[in-house]
Amino acid sequence: MLPMTPKAKKRLFLTVVLLAGLFATLKLTYWVHLHQGKIEIQTQSEKQLKELISFLDGALSRYESIPHVLSTNPMLANVLNDQQNPDKIQELNLYLEEIQHVTEASDIYLIDALGIAIAASNWQQSFSFIGKDYSFRPYYTDAISGNLGRYYAVGTSSDKRGFYFSYPIYQQGGKGILGAIIVKVDISGIEQQSTSMAIAGQYQFLISDPEDIVFISSVDEWRLKSLTPLTQAKQYMLNASKRYAERPIGELLMKPPYESGSQAMLYQLQTGRDHEQYMDNHQLMAKAGWRVHILAPIKPLLSSLPALMLLSASIYLLLALSILFSAERRRNLQRMQLAQSLLEQRVEERTQDLQQANNQLKDTQDELIQAAKLTVIGSLSASINHELNQPLAAIRSYAQNTQTFLARNMQDKALDNIKIIIELTDRLADIVGQFKSFTRKSQGTDSATDIGRCIQQALTIVQPEIDKQGVELDVQLPNGSYQVWGDKVRLQQVFVNIMSNAIVAMQQSDKRRLIIRVTSEDKFCISIQDSGPGVRESQMEKIFEPYFTTNERHGLGLGLSISQRIIESMQGQINVANAEEGGAIFQIILPIYLLEEC
Description:
- By secondary structure, the protein is an alpha+beta fold.
- Helix content is 51%, strand content 21%.
- It has 14 helices and 21 strands.
- An eight-stranded mixed β-sheet has the order 9-8-7-6-13-12-11-10. A five-stranded antiparallel β-sheet has the order 2-1-5-4-3, sandwiched between helices.
- Strand 7 (213-217) and strand 8 form a beta hairpin.
- The longest helix is centred in the N-terminal third of the chain and has 59 residues, at 6-64.
- The protein is flat and about 120 Å long.
């Protein structure tokens, strides 16, 4: 096989890039179209959901006040007080029948305090409610308790779906409840009107009860189906409540399983012989206790996808061809410019002296930059001497204690001290390594740093001085693992600087106490408080300046200045104030990176 020529390789490369770009364009078009389309469908579904709920509320509310109005008619209380009088009962039957025709309610009936129907608008029908016991219905319980009852169920006598409103009938003078008046609304008419709205809006809908049973739907086969698994316990509860009379309840086949708390979920449901995908948006009707679902079909969105992807591919190919044409034109211009550059080369040769002068100026600028760099290195060299003193002093103290422990044959404690000395030695190596990173213009190695562990490591360094000065230590760290983003070595330097300054400030104090607190809300607040004389007001503004020190504080005056630069590099801030009871308080505020609960 002959090797490919450079020209053939270039063509192959362009073909691969072109095909990769086409694939990416189609993939992006697919994602954007579906994503934007789902947002539009959800927005439209939410609007349709509000319209449907408004219609349902209006359809039910026109019947809600009827029981209350009827309860004011003294005829009802008279019949309940004299149930053995057939003339009064017949008169009431005719009255309820007339009210039923006027209000277009499905049925109106009166039940006594025991839940037995004694008069009804359907007194002439074969499924008349008179004599039937309705004490098991929740609307009876609500009315007998003195409340307006609302309840959906399938009638045990009529086998018709209805929504029931009930209201108590009070004894004259309001001294007792004699029974309740019930108004039943046939929801089949409401369902038909809602279905007409769904057809016009090109969506499907279903309404479920608190047990997730669908009792109203624009699709017949979804009705009387459970959205959630129909367990034995749930089936027993449905049978006991008689909400759906003797009608069988099945499970609605949905993929994935129904989640009541999720909005804009995509479900695949069966309609006839087909399985169609819908986006579900739902809302609870608080008064009725219904959950109304709008199911928007995804099929129109998917059907428009091929044409859109074809359009995107065509636009991409046109743009690609335009780019290739422009590239070829640019190459032709480059050939013309090459001839021109040969002419310009002669001019460049005559300006050689000027170019050399420019190079010398650049070299001078580089030397100035290097001089500034050395100045920074000198400042860091002074600070490294300040930072090494504390670990070296701690190593000496632990070494002296180790000699004492070895002399007393306390090898366990001696080994513990040796481990600490090794850690402090590693600490010194980290500090020196940090100094080297500054010379390389490095900002250090940032990582997720545990704030509590960092404080404990700093306390390890200053602990010998704390013990020597007899300082009472009060440390309170929050539960959990709190982390900040930054260099743990530099952060330890800040804590050591402030703790060391606090110990020095308390040397002349009778009571020596160091308090360390860590609190967190939206940020960390690390508070370090001593019981020393505090900071003079005149020194507050200068305390973080380089080389500033006081008579009470020793050293070069670089610690707090360095600490401020470190904290600011971690997007934080450091402040100083005087406590009311005396002493200085240094507050370090840092952004929270991560919190892991223990």
